[in-house]
Amino acid sequence: MLTDLGTVNEILEKHGYQRASLIGILQDIQSRMNYLPRKALLHLSRCLDIPLAEIYEVATFYKAFHLEPKGRHTIQVCLGTACHVRGSRRILSYLESLLEVKAGGTTKDLSFSLETVNCLGACALGPLLVIDRKYYGKMSTNRMEEILKKYR
Amino acid sequence: MSPHLKTISELRSFRENLKRSRDPRSPCITVCSGTGCQACGALEVLEAFREKIREMGVNQEIEIRATGCHGFCERGPLVVIRPQKICYMNVSPEDVSEILHQVAKGGGVIERLLYQDPMTKQRILYEEEIPFYKFQRRIVFGSNGEIDPTNIDDYIGIGGYQALEKVLSTMTPEEVIQTIKASGLRGRGGGGFPTGIKWEACRRAKGREKFIICNADEGDPGAYMDRSLLEGNPHSVIEGMLIGAYAIGSEEGYVYVRNEYPLAVSNLSCAIDQARAYGLLGRNILSSGLNFQIKINRGGGAFVCGESTALMASLEGRVGEPRAKYIHTVEQGLWNQPSNLNNVETWANIPLIINRGVEWYSSIGTEGSKGTKIFSLVGKINHTGLVEVPMGMTLRQIIFDIGGGIPKNKRFKAVQTGGPSGGCLPEALLDLPVDFDRLQEAGSMMGSGGMIVMDEDNCMVDMARYFVQFLEEESCGKCTPCREGLYQMGRILNRICRGEGREGDIELLEDLSLVMLESSLCGLGLTAPNPVLSTLRYFRDEYEAHIQERRCPAKFCRELISFSIHPEKCTGCGACAKVCPAQAITGERKKVHLLESQKCVKCRACFEACKFDAVIIS
Questions:
Q1: Residue A67 placed within a domain
Q2: Which of B220, B302, B316 lies at the smallest CB-CB distance from A61?
Q3: Which terminus of chain A has fewer Cβ atoms in its 10 Å neighbourhood, N or C?
Q4: For chain B, what is the domain count?
Q5: B257 and B118 part of one domain
Q6: Do B448 and B376 fall into the same domain?
Q7: Is there a contact between B226 and B376 (Cβ–Cβ < 8 Å)?
Q8: Any idea what the CATH number is for the domain that residue A118 is in?
Q9: Which among A90, A123, A133 has the least Cβ separation from residue B604?
Q10: Are residues B513 and B577 in the same domain?
């Protein structure tokens, strides 16, 4: 199911097979398939007549794209300036040691992907943690374990 | 049922009808539903209101409206009772029925939900009397709290699309451009280039077609006014773009918005659909002959795409690398055609200028910077949120009068403006009037309006390192000075923070900065040294303490501090041991605990957990 090319065709259809929509197409593929499978990119290359290398160039340039499967839950630690001055680095290193995974990685049991983002625009609530689009504001290390429990 | 408005007079009479049908005296409860308040549970509050209204029966004529961001994100969810404008803060679903009963009764106030002045302990009833709002001048941002962004009628009802009406019926494109030029409006995205001059150049440029672009790739960490405007008042941006399209002669517009802003994307799409249904976007708009459509493109999480040429490359579906600008984008931009790019806040200023006139607009602000500016006041500050103030207000007024000063009686150390391209300004500059030119003279810049306040616990060398690392990661790598310069600066700053700084490091940082300032390709590299240079200019002693004494004066840099437990202050409550991820703290309950420094990972969890100040950093 992960490399269901029908889904890719559907997305291509929606974007009218436009080369200029490549970023939008990749975003849609990722939101449907959780990451960018190589098979899907190969298919894209043939349908849009773009060299595979060029697709990889775009897919690796933009931070939002993932070439590996992600965990069931995505934890994003905001490292924007406002969060930084309120200690978001500490939140990140605490999470890294708790989950035994480095930022950008996924836990072995595929339950969590740990990511960093530059700013989510909810600076009043820093340090900010987002798990699957749910915002947890004013984070401190001692609240973390309890929050993670809900997702384990 | 949405009307397809065919002429200007149809729009006018539609607005008049709307105004007549809406009684401004009837009770209305607005719930702020911006991203900030949503994170505090605004949607649950909203749902509770709707449910309770249903329970109370259909006779209750109380309107519940979900609005955009009010700015005071610190105290969310915010609820305003209209028409009196009573402002409730930190509202939870449990408070809802009490509020509704008071409103239904037609009076009464719930004291505990009002703003309380931290000094006098006095409760304040109305939004405009709270210090946070009192000193602001909210001409661009003010409507956010009044309208439902997903309902175009709300916008039209408060005079929306009136500026478009005026432009189409009474002004030539040249007159529009003259007006914008005369208003003195400068781009709110960073550089502060005069908007009217840009428009004029794009109008004059020759091309097959022309493009209007709205830059909503608000990448500056710590700034979020554009997100709030797009979320809370998307039609003001659309109206601004329509006026720009008329003046410049464009039929196609793009909004390039960050993918990290899902609510902004959805509210903007909704607004575009509604404008199209009303005949305010599309072909032959209001029978004026103007054709204009807007498309939304979502970014891919690359900071450099906020740079105009990189953004245009990204719109074309390519890697977002900037190019040299010896040919300006107003001549050859998107698809090599003349393209006019302004940011969200700039576009939102346009309808105001048209509606209220040049004289009024240019009476606000300073000599070289007209109008207002929205700042995001964040970091170590009591009243965090978005504030809109006239240009020229001093940093002290913004940070202390509006922002309420620094929490926990800590001492103000610096304020960082302009994002990664800006600098850190010290206490001595608190009386600096904030406008484009004064900030630049002080070694910082306006940027998109982030204002990050720092207190005595923040290390300025670490701040410089933070920005350099941020930019190093975000540099596209196309030109050498930026790519290599940032990498080397990052290495030097890293070793200074680790206590391994060498004699000559400061001079080396200055040399590298100069090279980057002179020879980088785009704005990212050209301004990247600012955080380093400004901290060196104002906080050189901190660098020297790190290098010469191996000491971090703010007790922040991990490698230069150690943790211990004060035996007299420790009560043996065990809170520290519980949170320690490294099991470095041991001790029996109700007895003094012990911290083993070899095991300690310096995460500060114990320091934050201890309620008795018994964890000591030295």
A1: no
A2: B302
A3: N
A4: 5
A5: no
A6: yes
A7: no
A8: 3.40.30.10
A9: A90
A10: no
Q: What does the alpha-carbon distance between residue B236 and residue A26 come to, in Å, rounded to a whole number? A: 30
pLDDT digits (tens, 9 = 90+) for A77-89: 999 988 998 889 8
CB B80 within 8 A of CB B86: yes
- Interchain CB distance below 8 Å, B224 and A117: no
pLDDT digits (tens, 9 = 90+) for B523-547: 999 999 999 999 999 999 999 999 9
Listed range (B62-71, B151-160, B193-202, B598-607) with the worst mean pLDDT:
B598-607
Provide the domain limits for residue B594.
562-617
The minimum CA-CA distance between A3 and chain B, rounded to whole Å, is 22
Q: Do B317 and A81 touch (CB under 8 A)?
A: no
Tell me the two tokens of residue B284.
Answer: 């032959």
Number of domains observed in the structure of chain A:
2
Q: Which candidate, B237, B266, B227, B267, places its Cα nearest to that of B36?
A: B227
> Which chain B residues in 277-306 lie under 8 Å from chain A, judged by CB atoms?
297-303
Are A135 and B298 a contacting pair at CB < 8 A?
no
CA distance B109 to A15: 53
Domain with A53 in it: 5-61
Q: Is the CB of A94 less than 8 angstroms away from the CB of B605?
A: yes
Q: Which B-chain residues 568-597 have CB contacts (< 8 A) with chain A? A: 575, 578-579, 581-582
Best to test chain A binding among B263, B378, B402, B475 (most A CBs inside 10 Å): B378
